[in-house]
Amino acid sequence: MRGTMKLAILGIGCGALLACAGSSFAREPGGQCWSAEALAGRPGEKAIHRSTYDPAIEPAGEDVALPPLPAGQRGSIRGVRLPKGERLVALTFDLCSNANEISGYEGGIVDTLRGAGVKATFFPSGKWLLDHKERAGQLIADPLFEVGSHSWTHRNFRLLPPQDAGADLALDLKADAAIRRALNAKACYRPATAQEHTALFRFPFGTCNAGTLAAVNDAGLLAIQWDVVSGDPSKAISAEAIRQGVVSHVKPGSIVVMHANGRGVHTAEALPLVIADLRKHGFEFATVSELLSKGEPVIADSCYELKPGDNARYDKLFPLERDHAGPHGGIAN
User: Fold this and answer.
1) What is the mean pLDDT of residues 239-266?
2) Interval 142-155 mean pLDDT
3) To the nearest whole number, what is the mean pLDDT of the chain?
């Protein structure tokens, strides 16, 4: 279709470990656009600010056209069955943002990943991308990372009608496309291929219904859940508890969920411990797309945290009527 953008699942390798470290990202095609100082985290970026939703921020233009998913990839993907001997894990970080806030950017987390040469996948809300355009471009440009989707403004997709979910996804993908167009247009950015959409989506709160799960898959997006919960939004969970909880539950092919938007209370402190421990146990790190390319996805027909129905509490905590911003609002966890 003329004027539309096609999607590609990106599995970008890093080569030698040092080539992926934050100190050398400036020598990569994307890193040439930013100094080491510009890439580093800054005090105050983690803060979350309340704001009034402005519909004018909604991205315009044609909908993004995505290739259909194979039948065997529909459903909620919770992990990957890997061949014997493969010890890979995917660390993922949600960048939620609801309609009535500007959520944060935790540079300490990104700095740790770059410094340790650890691959990771980020799931930003579309509004988060537009609120943090420069940081979004940096994440997309870095060969260590891949950037998927996390809805437009983090509404509860279990309570959302499928047609509303489709409208939400359209805005989300347009926001992603706008950031990638701006990145590709930079004279300093000369990758081997232009950055295209990553076909990965994470449901807000990890909730869905049959209709919204189908809507995501019909949009050409893989629905990526997790099998290891860090619990990092909880103030009661210390960095040491996060380390113990993650390391004790990770297995080959696991997908770990954390946050990097100001809601990961002790994540920046825990992450170096998690990385060190997993490496001691023989694990290496992969993006979600790379993990999927190595084995067979573990797929469920519904969305949940660790067992079916265990996230039903979010229907009361985050009902749609708490949305004060019209059809595109929501409350992030």
Assistant:
1) 97
2) 96
3) 88
Euclidean distance between CA atoms 14 and 68, whole angstroms: 28
Q: Which tokens in the block code for residue 21? A: 């470290």
Tokens of 273: 């411990």
**Taking residues 202-229, what's their average pLDDT?**
97
Which of 61 and 123 is assigned the larger pLDDT?
123
Tokens representing 105? 């950017």
Rounded Cα distance, 151 and 143, in Å: 23
N-terminal to C-terminal alpha carbon distance within the chain: 37
Asked if 52 contacts 160 with a C-beta cutoff of 8 angstroms, the reply is no
Residue 137: partners with Cβ closer than 8 Å, 6 or more residues away: 30, 33, 179, 182, 183, 186
Amino acid found at 279 = R
Q: Is the dihedral of CA 49, 204, 162, 323 positive or negative?
A: negative
Domains located in the chain, CATH noted: 75-318 (3.20.20.370)
Q: Examine the pLDDT at 332 and tell me if it is beyond 90.
A: no
Structure token pair of residue 215: 């809507």
Tokens 């997993």, residue located: 278
Residue 140's alpha-carbon distances to 85, 91, 187, 322, in angstroms, are 30, 16, 16, 32
Bridge-based pairing of strands 200-201 and 228-229 is unpaired
In 3D, which of 161, 182, 65, 173 has the Cα closest to residue 126?
173
Q: Kindly report the three-state secondary structure assignment for every residue of 30-70.
A: CHHHCCHHHHCCCCCCCCCEECCCCHHHCCCCCCCCCCCCC
Query: 257-268: per-residue pLDDT in tens?
Result: 999 999 999 999
Contacts of 193 (CB under 8 A, 6+ apart): none
Residue count (the chain): 333
Residue of 246 and 19 predicted with greater confidence: 246
pTM value is 0.89
Closest CA to 215 of 155, 163, 174, 159: 163
